[in-house]
Predict the 3D structure of the following.
Amino acid sequence: MDGLFQIWVYLAEQPLLWLAVTVSAYVVAQQLFLRSGGFPLLNPVLVSITLVVLLLLATGTDYDTYFEGGQYVHFLLGPATVLLAVPLYAQIHRLRRQWLPLSIALLAGSVTAIASTVVLGLGLGLGPSTLMSLMPKSATTPIAMGVAEKLGGEAALAAVFVMLSGITGAVAGIPLLRLLGERDPAVKGFAMGVTAHGIATARAFQHSNQAGAYAGLGMGLNGALTALLVPLFAWLFGL
Amino acid sequence: MIPAFIALVLLLQLAGEALVRALGIPIPGPVIGMLLLLVIVIFQGGPPKPLQALATGLLNHLSLLFIPAGAGVISYLALLADNWLPVLVTIIISTMLTIVVTAFTLKFLIRRMNREDS
C-alpha cells in the first residue's frame, strides 16, 4: 500500500499522468456522445472538462500541476487554427459569392452578442468589472482577455466566460437551429462560430466539414470585430 | 511528406505571432498564420494531400484541444460563487439570441441574393 502511494506521488507530479488523463477523458466523452446518438448535453468538451475537473478536485491536484501535462494538448490549438485555412479553401467559391451576406450577418451577430450582454447584465444587477469581463465573451480567449483587461475587467474572469459561452453555443447551437428549421450547414456553422468561437467550431466540425469551415471563418472574423466593438459599446452605454 | 507540412504550419504560426507583435494588432498570431496558409493554398490551386490529411486529422478532434484550457475554470470557481446565477443566465440567453440573429440574418440575405440572381 505504501509502495502504491509512492508511485502515485511520483506520477501525480509528472506530465505523463495528466496528459494521459486528458486524452482518455476525451475518448470516454466522445464514445458517450456517439453512443447517445449525439445527445446535446453530452457534448464531448463539456463532459471531458467535467471529468478532468472532478478528478482534479478528488485528488486535490492544483491546476498548474495538471497543466504540466495538459499543455501538450493545449499547444496544438495554434497549429489547428492555422490549418483552418484548408477547409476554408474548399468553400472559397461560395465565400466569394456570399461575402456581403456574411459580412452583414457577422455585424448583426457581433452587435447582438455585446448589446444583449450589457442589457441583460445591467438588468440582472452585475457590477461594472464583471460586465466588462463578460462583454467580449463571443471572441476567442486571447482577444477577450486583452479587451476585458484594457476596459477594467478581469482577464482571468473573461477567459472563464469565453469558455462558458463556447460550451453553451456548442451544446445549444445545433438543436436550436434545427428547431428553427435551418438546414444549410454553412448558415449553422457561421452562426455558431460567430457566437461561440472555437468550442462551437469543434462541434460544427462534428456536424460536417462545411459547417466547420464556416464556423472557423465566423470565429476568426468576430474575434477581430469584437475587439473593435466592445470599447465602442462600453462608451455608448457609459460604462 | 507530412513533416514538411508540420514544419510549414508551425512556421506560419510563428510568422503570425511575429507579425502580430511587430504591428501591435489585437488579433491572435495563429489567425494571421491561417490567412497566410490560405493565400499559399489559393496560389497552389488547392491543398496537397498530406496537408489535407493533417488538417482533417487535427480538426476532427478540435474538441480535445479545448480540454486543458477548459479545466482552468477550476481556478476561478470561487470568483463565480458570488453571482453565478445572473452570469449564467446572461451567457445562456445572450448566446442563444446571437446564434438565432446571426443565422436569420445570413439566411434572409442569401435567399434575397439567390432570388435576385435567378
Q: What stands out?
A: Chain A has a mean pLDDT of 92. The two ends of chain A are 59 Å apart (CA to CA). Chain A is about 80% helix and 0% strand. Chain A touches chain B through 108 residues (CB under 8 Å).
